[in-house]
Every structure is written in C-alpha cells, then in structure tokens.
Amino acid sequence: MKLLVTGGAGYVGSVCAAVLVEQGHDVTIIDNFSTGNRDAVPGEARIIEGDVADKAAEILGEGGFEGVIHFAARSLVGESVDKPDEYWQHNVVTTLKLLNAMRESGVKNLVFSSTAATYGEPDQVPITEDMPTQPTNPYGATKLAIDYMITSFAHAYGLGATSLRYFNVAGAYGNIGENREVETHLIPIVLQVALGHRDKIFMFGDDWDTEDGTPVRDYIHVRDLADAHVLALKSNESGNHRIYNLGSGDGYSVKQVIDMCRKVTGHDIPAEVAPRRAGDPATLIASSEKIKRELGWNPTRTDLETIVSDAWNFTRQLGDKAHSAKRS
Ligand code: UFG
C-alpha cells in the first residue's frame, strides 16, 4: 500500500514505519523533527520535513495514497497540564487539517495513535472500550476530542478509521527505541540511571491508592503495538470508526518496574520518593480483548522482563554511541 505516516520519526511512529517498510509497503513519512530522530527513520522511506498542518494537503494531493497512520502529536501528560494551548493546537487543529486533506484527496483509510489517557481515572480495571472517558489532563482531552472528530467524519464522509488507545508503550525494536532529547518516561529514565547518566530515579509519590503506594501502569511492547497498526490499516471499512485498547493486561507499579530494571541491568538503581506529578492517575490497566477478538491481534512480548531487556539493549547501544562520539 502507498501510505503516509505522520510523525514517523518519533518512537512509536518509526518502529511502525520500519515494520511497514519490511512488509513491502511504500511509506512516506512527514515529521518536523521537533522530537523525532533522523536516525530512526527507515532508509527505504521517503521523508518530508515539515508540519502536518502545512503539508498534508500537498502531499496527499499527489494522489495514490491508500492510507494514513497519524502519530504526529504532543504526547506528554505533565507538559499538557502546563501548556494546554500547544496540545489543542498541535493535536486537535492539526488533525482537523489532516482529515480535511484526506477528504479532499479521497483517502479514506486512517489509523490514529490515541491513548489510555482518554479514560482518565477509571472506576475499575481492566479498562474496556465502553467505559466512561473522563480525561484527567489536557493531553487525554485532546486525543478524545479527535476521536469525536474522526467518528463524525466517518459518518458524514465515509472515512474508515481505527483509533488505537495505547497504554504505556516501552521496549525497543532493533536499533529503534526511546531516544528523546528531554526524557520523561519511567523505563528510559530508570535505565539511564543504570547506565550512569543519572544519579537516581525520582518516584512521583508513594501515597497513591495502590498496593505499594506507587502508580500502576500496563506496559506494552512497541513491536507488538506496531502489529496492531498494520491489522487496523488492513481491516478499516469506509463509514466505520473503531476504537481499541492496547496493553498487555498486567499492571506494574513504579517500584516493580524499578525492581525489574535492577534485575535486568544488575545495577542497584538508587530511588527516591518525590512529590506527585500533576495529571497522573493512580492505576491504568487495559483490556485488549476486543482487538484480539475482532482483528486477531496476538501480542508476543507481553512480559515486563522482555520489554525491559529490549529497552536495556537499546539504551546500552545509545550509551556506546554517545561515548564514541565524545572520544572522536
Ligand atoms: N514516573 C516516576 N518517575 C519518573 C517518571 C515517571 O515516578 O521519573 C511515574 C509516573 O508518575 C507514572 C509512571 O511512572 O506514574 C509512568 O509514567 P510515564 O511518564 O512513563 O508514563 P505516563 O503513564 O505518564 O504516560 C504514558 C504516555 C502517555 C499515555 C499513558 C497511558 O506518556 O502518552 O502512558 O497509560 F497516555
């Protein structure tokens, strides 16, 4: 298929683009490289540098595109609390422009990168897709607003779409992994401590309503996540907007994640309790039964040890690269 991947230089976008290229698809990536990495983009993909809002109409106007996978977005919970305007602009306004560009060029197949943050603080876990959506931060609110937008475009204009609500994505695929200039995510930060790039990990609160007092999350391997995008793309139907949760179905607390990182790395990883982070819910665990049942999604890297080990192999490669760059 001829595909446009927005945000294809970001962490999830680049793994997905790599898998699509491996499977023989003709991939065009648009990325403004504000947070993405040039190194992560597969060599076989065409790359267009710029903002989706400015360039989507022109690119799709070339013709021949059969689908769009839309990753480009701001995606940090804490940052969205401080800078909501940027989230409404870059997530909602940009996606409206993309959907209009798709409509004008007759492209009716969309996979949208969404999030568990659309649910907010659920009354019960595991979270199924029919549970109330009450986001606790602007990031989740913008992604939810986009889901409403997509549904209305599906009904009015025949768009065929799938929103994938990711829980906590982690792990790496070969030489592509989490490599951000400013890192805020738990697993890469803990591994940076193991590598000696940070002194300790700060745990944001140990007085949450969970078994050990630290927040519980459902970690999903980025390579399993990529498979779900391919399945969604191949099964979208005009006029229908489907929503699926993607997680591994198990919850791990911040303390349990740190312990697993200690086991995998053999490093003692000092940890210290710090104040809670604004916008964080206590517990997020997915039910992914719907996508397994309806699309046959079959994640194979669901245990935390595999996820952390793959992330650790990648983090060490990064550390080696940084070391040799300094020496040369
Ligand atoms: N945490 C720490 N210390 C840190 C970093 C994180 O204690 O230095 C804690 C957070 O408070 C949270 C947990 O580790 O309880 C996970 O935090 P992350 O920043 O790794 O991830 P989030 O759960 O905040 O958010 C991620 C994605 C969102 C997505 C969400 C869905 O960044 O896009 O998962 O579950 F919406």
Automatic annotation (TrEMBL):
- Limits of the NAD-dependent epimerase/dehydratase domain: 4-247
The Swiss-Prot or TrEMBL record annotates one GO molecular function as: UDP-glucose 4-epimerase activity
Check the record and name the PROSITE patterns matching this protein. ADH_SHORT
Single Gene Ontology BP term? galactose catabolic process via UDP-galactose, Leloir pathway
Please state the pathway this protein functions in, per its UniProt record.
Carbohydrate metabolism; galactose metabolism
Its family? Belongs to the NAD(P)-dependent epimerase/dehydratase family.
- Mind listing the UniProt keywords for this protein, alphabetically? Carbohydrate metabolism, Isomerase, NAD
The identity of this protein, by name, is UDP-glucose 4-epimerase
Please write the reaction equations for the catalytic activity of this protein: UDP-alpha-D-glucose = UDP-alpha-D-galactose
Q: Which InterPro entries match?
A: Epimerase_deHydtase, NAD(P)-bd_dom_sf, Sc_DH/Rdtase_CS, UDP_G4E
- EC numbers for this chain: 5.1.3.2
Cofactor needs: NAD(+)
Q: Tell me the Pfam families matching this sequence.
A: Epimerase
